[in-house]
Design a protein that fits this description.
By secondary structure, the chain is an alpha+beta fold. The longest helix has 11 residues. The strands form 5 sheets. It has a 6-stranded mixed sheet, with helices on one face. It is globular. Helix content is about 15%, strand content about 30%. The structure holds manganese (II) ion.
Amino acid sequence: MASDFVFAPPPVVSVPVVGRSARFPVHRIYCVGRNYEEHAKEMGFTGREPPFFFMKPADALVVVDAGHTGQVAYPSLTKNLHHEIELVVAIGQGGRNIAAADAHRHIFGYAVGLDMTRRDLQNDMKKQGRPWDIGKAFEQSAPIGPIVPKEDAGAAEQAAISLQVNGSDRQRSTVGQLIWNVAETIEHLSAAWELQAGDLIYTGTPEGVAAVVAGDLLVGQVEGLPALTVQIV
Ligand code: MN
């Protein structure tokens, strides 16, 4: 029978949608590297380079409902787990070769996300010219809050973005500082991959990335979206 599997298939990963009972089923997670100038500088780079991308598996998400505190287990192998607060774009309509001018009709909504990074392992891989997966694509590396439909999200692409750790500011900027804005990012991504409904795009992080340790409480915000709160355990 076509419905037989040799073991139980994993559940569909999904994210709650503010104001709706139906959830957003996740296909892929794309991430943009070094997409704020001041963050590129703190990573040792300058200037506007073509956008580049990496992925995380959909089951790396830690889905945190509004008003709740998610838990992120401190991952193995690292001694330098970094936070990266990011605006996440949720794709509602797929496509190939989407022009920037046409990109917004492909967007379903926006959420607040954290691109958690094993920075020591990522740096080792960079030095050796090897893939970043071990630094970026581990379990629980992608906390995310609820998705707000774009018609209810205000000016998310220009909004204030911030991260506090234990009540102190670590990252603070505006999404308007993105080097490659959301529409341009969708144009570049969809030239390389066929975007599908259910794709999430972590759009990049502003300056101020730093380490967290077990016990730390992280509160990420993009003005107009529900805050994302997680504790490292
Ligand atoms: Mn990032």
